Amino acid sequence: MSHSYFEANARERLAQLLDAGSFRELLPPGARMTSPHLPPLDAPVAFDDGVVVGAGTLDGRPVLVGAQEGGFNGGAVGEVHGAKLTGLLERALDERPAAVLLLVESGGVRLHEANAGLIGVSEVMRAVLAARSAGIPVLVLIGGQYGCFGGMGIVSRCCDAIVISEEGRLGLSGPEVIETTCGVEEFDSRDRALVWRTVGGKHRYLLGEADRLVPDDIAAFRAAARELLDTRPDLSLAALEAEHARLGRRIDRFGDCRDARDIWTRLGIAAPERLPLLDTAEFLAATADRRA
Amino acid sequence: MDARTLLDQLFPAGHDVVFDGPYFAGSGRCGAGSVAVIGSVDAAPIGIELAHRMAGAVLDVVREHPGRPILLAVDTSGQRLSHRDELLGINGYMAHLAKCIALARNRGHRVLGLVYSKAVSGGFLASSLLADVCYALPDAEVMVMNLPAMSRVTKIALERLQALSQTSPVFAPGVANYLAMGAVEALWDGDLAQRLDAALAAPVDGDRRRAVGEARGGRLLARRVAERVRTDAVG
């Protein structure tokens, strides 16, 4: 029986992603580590500050995991929330698990504590890069209702690999932010088809911004994460030069495209307009060997 | 302060920094030798081209000048907000810049950030905030979002945000807030060349910003929370 990743909350995802009963939470809700910055603005707090961190096993192998809860402020990062993720990644330096898994669901920095959130995200980025530099892979899963935006969109691409579902969205500035700032003619955030083909999982996968596209099923995320456990982090000069060349080619090749369909056409995909309609298996078959 | 004045004050012995649109790069001579400088001007929005170009400049320094310190002097109004940048994966370009900075650090380059004019949100996050240590000029503007915009998004009255910002550093614009929270190590005034020499000579030991923020009373929980998650026994 399949369980929707999109519909599940952070704890449900962890329970089904990891080996049954293996999850142990660090700084659990009982510790009452809430944000001190929300009450002065009459905003509600959560006992986990919107992120669940801990240890478990995947296929019998030890992993550290962090899962953001979109149901609390859209998974936005504040001081405590960010520090939990940073502490988790630093714990990896001591424990040397097989990998750190980040179940990202976040609109970015929490505005009620914007400065603390922004600094906190930069600490998470440095901790991700330090863990990877120490040889510990950091894997990202994206498939929740709030997507992965703002600083967490940058964090995710600092990691080793991203697993995304079609329902997952990944970017920097969300469509609503761009529409509010630049006008509806720049980005119509209510045009769902436009939003999905711009920041949705299928386009991210075709562009090479995500490594695996999976159906909206926690078991599919689990299978992909398991396969990626043996990823070897590579932050060498050669690896970053290769990435640099790849990102440069993307600008040369697609820099004048104004819609994802233009990019898909240029990738040589037959009948690109039908891509949004295909299920994941059909999509993968239709686009095999056509990724950027 | 504009970038040319800044560079003249940082490098009285001379520099070969070349400007090209919003971007500049080159090197300056200081007491300890050469320093690579990479930055932007005119509160440039950082889009995919500029992020890619700055990342390339970091890679050039790593490849051609092993160990040379790098000064990031980025003047930015934030990430470029556009449908086209999102379509092409701007977060991937920002992350690439961050990874290149990490590579330089890993290979023994000292990486300093200096906010000389403006540093906002994602543009700040992918550059100076990834440096080993970040400094700022006293009149620099640092923020995520101005208070009127924050009021609109959070639906909290502007007057209330303004009142609370008098006592709390956590959300309002202001370099003093970032200083209190440990993200800005110090404000540079007086002899900037001397400040740079001193910063290059100072020891660096990991990411100390949480501890600094705690000591300054601007960010009291981050260090403690991270420490607990790192060291608590699992249940």
UniProtKB/TrEMBL annotation, chain A:
Domain CoA carboxyltransferase N-terminal: 1-237
Annotated TM spans: none
Highest rank taxon of the organism: Bacteria
Pfam family name, one: Carboxyl_trans
UniProt GO molecular function: acetyl-CoA carboxylase activity; carboxy-lyase activity; transferase activity
Record-level GO BP terms: carbohydrate metabolic process; fatty acid biosynthetic process; malonyl-CoA biosynthetic process
The entry's keywords: Transferase
UniProt-listed InterPro entries: AcCoA_carboxyl_beta, Acetyl_CoA_COase_Trfase_b_su, ClpP/crotonase-like_dom_sf, COA_CT_N, Malonate_beta
GO cellular component: acetyl-CoA carboxylase complex
NCBIfam families: malonate_beta, PRK07189.1
Name of this protein: Malonate decarboxylase beta subunit
Origin species: Plasticicumulans lactativorans
Source organism phylogeny: Bacteria, Pseudomonadati, Pseudomonadota, Gammaproteobacteria, Candidatus Competibacteraceae
From TrEMBL, chain B:
GO BP term, example: carbohydrate metabolic process
InterPro entries (alphabetical): ClpP/crotonase-like_dom_sf, Malonate_gamma
Annotated NCBIfam families: malonate_gamma
Identification of the protein by name: Malonate decarboxylase gamma subunit
Organism encoding this protein: Plasticicumulans lactativorans
